[in-house]
Design goal:
The complex is a heterodimer. By secondary structure, chain A is an all-alpha fold. Chain A has twelve helices and no strands. Chain B has a domain of 172 residues: P-loop containing nucleotide triphosphate hydrolases (Rossmann fold), CATH 3.40.50.
Chain lengths: 312, 256
């Protein structure tokens, strides 16, 4: 029997977490067409909230995960309303700023909240250490279970698939296709942009909670723009607007850097070159907008596809 | 009671008056044409009526509701739907999904029911599917229901845009140059199709069109817009003979 080493298990865990992150970001960037660079910020909210709840408050893991995800959802909802008025590059910059604010807020949370508590006369009651600032948050109760991670990955994919293949999902996709046309058909685009942003944030929060309890030590610097870009790469590589594409993208971009370890210092040269080559040959991503199931089905039916479009 | 009554609607962009004192009253089921030279403000009128721009002055009452200042999606939900001069298709969705999208706000299930796949999801999806297929059949697009909209020929896309707008179940349909880019055969087909749609769905239409034969052939009443102002209004025969209209289109002989 093939035994998984700790190293393999670790890679599998990160792969599962990345799947959750990539699939949920694809709802925002791919389907809704709203270019977000702030996914790591929502991940950080989920990670810190869940970690504090399990460690300092003794909450069970699942409840803490859901609480972290809900908080990320609420942030997505509240911040989405003003931010999603922006488009394209401007939105990307604003979402990046948003995730930086989250990171800086985590670093300075203890000092600031302490002072605020002092102003209202609660200084003595307020805990001195909540996020522990730049030092990082150590000794989070360990939940090293691939079952949890892949259970959540499954739930994420299922929920998003069900959303995408529904009337709500069509409203969301239509925004990505042509916002003005969507509006002209009675779709409240602002509402659905915000909703998709918040749903994406929810699952980023879940991923953060899983990540925190796997590595047991987190710090704000782990959730910088590098992480957002890493997730974005998975989405773009897999295909914007394809859920199975994002799963594929997450799998490939988790494993690839590991394989490239054999090239030692050349790793960070080969990795970007491979990405450039992939994007040059398949700019629409591995699957484009199609799902894996339809690609596989297409392989079998391609030969006898009727030329329906040409018929008058 | 009129279906639409736009009263003294105007729009100023910076210092430029794009539309001035636009007044129009339409009865249910009426067919009205909006003509005028390029840049006269016809599309701006559409944008004002359908909530894409808020008007600077005036008021718009549609079907008994004051829709002045409504957002575009709110106006559409009231039953006033427009198409675009340059087609705005959901290009990578299928033809059928383009129509289904337009039924979104009338869908009888919510997000939770979709995620949990409750019975109402299935019954509603079935209803929407049947409804959209019927509409596609009516417009003879059922043969391409599963095709990606962006891959269709131009004439089909023009027709699909009308089908998608009809899928909202409007009471008033605003068509922005529906015959633009169509060949004479296709234009004749469109004329027949619009007449039958109007009979079938009992809706009113306001259309912008440059093809005079088309407008004269289908509209009961015509409005002529020049530099944002309505210079003439009346029956097709009256418009045809109106000296001001002829001047706007052909210029005057006087070159002083």
């Amino acid at each position: 029997m093939f035994e998984l080493s700790n190293y393999h298990i670790q890679v599998l865990a990160f792969m599962g977490i990345n799947i959750i992150l990539a699939v949920s970001l694809n709802l925002i960037n791919g389907f809704t067409g709203q270019f977000s660079l702030g996914h790591a910020g929502f991940m950080a909210i989920g990670a810190y909230t869940a970690a504090i709840l399990t460690k300092a408050c003794g909450w069970p893991f699942l409840a803490a995960t859901l609480a972290g995800a809900m908080l990320a959802f609420l942030f997505g909802l509240l911040l989405g309303i003003p931010i999603l008025r922006l488009k394209g590059d401007y939105l990307a910059i604003a979402t990046f700023g948003l995730s930086e604010i989250v990171r800086v807020a985590i670093v300075n949370f203890d000092d600031v909240s302490m002072k605020l508590a002092g102003y209202v006369g609660m200084g003595d009651l307020w805990p001195k250490e909540i996020t522990r600032g730049a030092l990082g948050y150590p000794a989070i109760p360990e939940v090293k279970s691939l079952l949890w991670i892949y259970g959540w990955a499954f739930v994420t994919c299922l929920v998003l698939r069900n959303i995408v293949r529904s009337s709500e999902g069509r409203a969301i996709s239509s925004i990505g296709e042509d916002e003005l046309a969507a509006e002209s058909l009675g779709i409240n685009t602002a509402r659905y942009k915000t909703l998709s942003f918040a749903i994406g944030a929810f699952f980023a929060g879940v991923a953060g909670a899983l990540f925190a309890h796997w590595v047991t030590f987190i710090k704000a610097d782990l959730f910088k723009i590098d992480k957002s870009i890493e997730i974005l790469l998975m989405v773009v590589l897999g295909g914007m607007g394809s859920l199975s594409g994002s799963v594929l993208g997450a799998v490939v971009l988790t494993i690839l850097p590991e394989y490239l370890r054999m090239f030692a210092q050349w790793r960070m040269v080969i990795y970007p070159v491979l990405l450039i080559l992939l994007m040059l040959t398949r700019p629409e991503g591995l699957l484009g907008k199609r799902e894996l199931s339809s690609v596989v089905a297409g392989l079998f039916t391609r030969a006898r596809r009727p030329a329906a479009a040409a018929a008058t | 009671m009129p279906l639409l009554s736009a009263d003294n609607v105007g729009k100023v962009f910076g210092g430029l008056t794009a539309v001035k004192g636009f007044t129009l009253s339409m009865e249910p089921g009426e067919m009205v044409g909006l003509i005028g030279p390029n840049g006269a403000g016809k599309t701006t009128v559409f944008n004002l009526l359908t909530g894409f721009f808020p008007p600077t002055t005036g008021s718009i009452v549609f079907d008994g509701v004051d829709v002045t200042g409504y957002k575009a999606w709110q106006v559409a939900q009231q039953g006033m739907v427009r198409t675009f001069q340059n087609i705005r298709m959901f290009s990578s969705l299928t033809v059928l999904d383009n129509l289904k999208t337009a039924q979104h706000f009338r869908t009888g299930y919510g997000l939770a029911e979709a995620v949990l796949r409750l019975p109402r999801y299935f019954s509603e999806e079935k209803r929407i599917h049947a409804d959209c297929m019927r509409l596609l059949e009516h417009l003879e697009l059922d043969g391409v229901a599963g095709e990606i909209a962006g891959s269709l020929p131009y004439g089909y896309q023009k027709r699909l845009e009308i089908a998608r707008a009809l899928s909202v179940r409007p009471k008033l349909l605003l068509l922005d140059e529906p015959a633009a880019g169509l060949n004479p055969t296709e234009t004749r087909e469109l004329l027949a199709r619009l007449t039958s749609i109007r009979k079938e769905f009992g809706l009113a239409m306001l259309l912008i069109e440059h093809d005079m034969k088309f407008v004269m052939g289908i509209c009961e009443r015509i409005l002529v817009l020049v530099y944002g102002e309505t210079i003439a209004q009346g029956l097709p025969e009256e418009i045809r003979k109106n000296p001001q209209v002829l001047e706007a289109y052909l210029g005057t002989e006087d070159h002083s």
